[in-house]
Every structure is written in structure tokens, then in C-alpha cells.
Amino acid sequence: MSEWIEQWESQGNIAESQKTILDKAKSTGEISTSDYEKAWSDYRQCMIDKGYKEIKLIKYPSGLYAEAGHKQGTTIQESRYSDDSTECGDEYVADVQDVYGIIVGNPNLYADQAQAVVDCLHRDSLVPKDYTVSRFNKEFSGTDGNISFDMQNLQVRSCLVSNGYNVGYATDDTEQLW
């Protein structure tokens, strides 16, 4: 994992606050819960400082966070939110989130996201042992019209989110940004 984190760092410009966290992770092979939560707290504060009323975070059973969805604003509001969340994310949480997601959701470092999700689902006993990547791809793409596991289960969603899949439902908690 340390070598993988080092490779990750060499791929781009990482903000200093995140580089400090990732440098620590290189020696331990993990990101501490307190460092991860601090990164999200800093992101949240950055967004509040930009004038948003609230930033709600969903915490998954794996410890992974994701920002809740929000009620649609005007075109101008949505554009501003996109710019602001990218800026705050790049500064405080984007790289830490990606690495933490890999650590909790893809510890075997599968290059294929679907393989990583299926491995996570297997590890957490959320699907039968004979559940395959092919079946996941078919079910998740909707071509077979039926999903054989509970997509609203927070553990399932944790496997999905930690591997780059964004899943939300109308019943999820939402932010009131404006």
C-alpha cells in the first residue's frame, strides 16, 4: 500500500494539507480516522466559508464519507457550487478520499472498479460467493432489469462509493445549500 500511495502522489499536484496526510499513510499503510475526518471537516468548513448554509456528510459503515446530495438550485447557483466544491475538494479532501476509498474498498488494488466492488461485496458477505463481475456489470448497468442485492444497504453503498460509483436515492438526506 505504501508503494501505491507513493505512486499516487507522483501523479499530480496534491495540496499541502492532503500531502501531509498521505505522507503519514506511506509509513503506516493507512490513513488514520482522525486525519480522514479532519480532511472532511476542513472541506465542510471551506464550503461554509463560501456561504453555503449546510454541508451534510453521509458516513458509511466502512468509515467512508460522501457529501449528501442537494436540492437543485438555479443554473448560476449550480455552476457556483460546482466550482466551489471542486476548489474546496482539491484543497482538502479529493486525494485523501480517493486513497482512503481504495484502502477500505479495494485493498487488493484491483484495476477494474467492478472487480473491486464485487470483491468488497464478497468480503462483507453481501452477495453469494458465486456472484461474478459479469453479473454485477449486467445488473448494475440495468440491462437485466433486476439487482440481486439491496442497493440501499449502507454496506453495499460503501463498497460502491469507495470504488468510484455514485449512488443516491430520493429518500437520502439532502443538503439545503441556498
Describe the structure.
This protein has eight helices and four strands; from the N terminus they run H-H-H-E-E-E-H-H-H-H-H-E. The mean pLDDT is 92. It has helices at 2-10, 16-28, 33-49, 75-92, 94-105, 113-123, 133-141, 154-161; strands spanning 57-59, 65-67, 69-70, 174-175. The termini are far apart. Helix 6 runs antiparallel to helix 8 (154-161). The strands form two sheets. A two-stranded antiparallel ribbon has the order 1-2. The chain is mainly α and 178 residues long. Strand 1 and strand 2 (65-67) form a beta hairpin.
**Strand share of the residues?**
5-15%
- Taking strands numbered 1, 2, ... along the chain, how are they ordered across the largest sheet? 1-2
- Parts with pLDDT < 50 across at least 5 consecutive residues: none
Contiguous helical run count: 8
The major pleated sheet works out as: 2 strands, antiparallel
| Rg over alpha carbons | 17 Å
Mean pLDDT: 92
Q: Secondary-structure element order, as H and E?
A: HHHEEEHHHHHE
**What structural category characterises the helix and strand content?**
mainly alpha
How far is the N terminus from the C terminus?
Answer: 41 Å
Helix content: 40-55%
**Overall form:** globular
Strand segment tally: 4
